[in-house]
Write a sequence for this structure.
């Protein structure tokens, strides 16, 4: 994490805002173009998946391209020993930037479609099967991200993450929110993608449970992977630095 924190936070805020704008805005557009629920979902998911892949590819070199508090938390947890992820303080800043971006992006989409900047959604999404779906969608997302990073294939993340989110949107009963920041932002837009504020806590708890399960599965399947190799490389580097230090005359 050599990029200044201010630039990383800007990347996370802007990326999350653009993602929220496309997610919410494409929902409004889909409803305006078709009364067919399947067509509406196809349009919304397609736009969101394309935006997600492009935004991760764009901002990953700066901030990691998380746009999701649970992805940031996973990066902190897996990199806390090797120093490859954000610190605890940086994690808190990442989450605030992502939340701010989600609110700004949802508000922008509302205004672009002739609505108030912020309006509370009336879509109640509160049931056990929806919470289970959110846990599963988020768990696989974290497993995917952690597994690719641990196995040294992080370059695949833009396509892989977007592909999974697209698949999970169709394959889960909840529509795969899988992101606490976007879940909060979607509560502030009363459209196709909305969720009632009272339903947000249940979704966020379910997503968090799924993230913990995803991290546990990644550790069980991949071990520490590249993190262990990075630790060894850092140790070798310290040994080489020590060997190059000039002897102190006595």
């Amino acid at each position: 994490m050599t990029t200044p924190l201010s630039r990383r936070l800007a990347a996370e805020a802007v990326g999350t805002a653009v993602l929220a704008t496309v997610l919410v805005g494409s929902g409004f557009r889909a409803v305006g173009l078709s009364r067919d629920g399947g067509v509406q979902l196809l349009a919304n998911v397609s736009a969101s998946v394309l935006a997600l892949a492009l935004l991760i590819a764009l901002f990953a070199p700066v901030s990691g391209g998380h746009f999701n508090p649970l992805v940031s938390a996973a990066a902190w947890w897996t990199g806390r020993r090797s120093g490859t992820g954000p610190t605890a303080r940086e994690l808190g800043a990442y989450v605030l930037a992502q939340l701010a971006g989600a609110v700004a992006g949802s508000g922008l989409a509302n205004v672009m479609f002739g609505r108030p900047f912020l309006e509370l959604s009336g879509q109640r999404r509160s049931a056990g099967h929806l919470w289970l779906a959110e846990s599963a969608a988020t768990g696989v997302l974290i497993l995917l991200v952690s597994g690719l990073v641990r196995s040294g294939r992080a370059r695949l993340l833009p396509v892989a993450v977007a592909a999974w989110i697209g698949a999970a949107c169709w394959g889960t009963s909840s529509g795969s929110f899988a992101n606490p920041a976007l879940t909060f932002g979607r509560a502030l837009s009363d459209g196709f993608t909305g969720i009632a504020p009272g339903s947000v806590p249940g979704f966020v708890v379910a997503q968090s449970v799924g993230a913990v399960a995803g991290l546990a599965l990644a550790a069980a399947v991949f071990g520490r992977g590249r993190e262990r190799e990075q630790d060894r490389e850092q140790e070798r580097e310290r040994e080489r630095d020590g060997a190059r230090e000039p002897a102190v005359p006595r």
Remarks:
- DSSP finds nine helices and no strands in the chain.
- The chain has a mean pLDDT of 91.
- Residues 238 and 244 are 10 Å apart (CA to CA).
- The two ends are 39 Å apart (CA to CA).
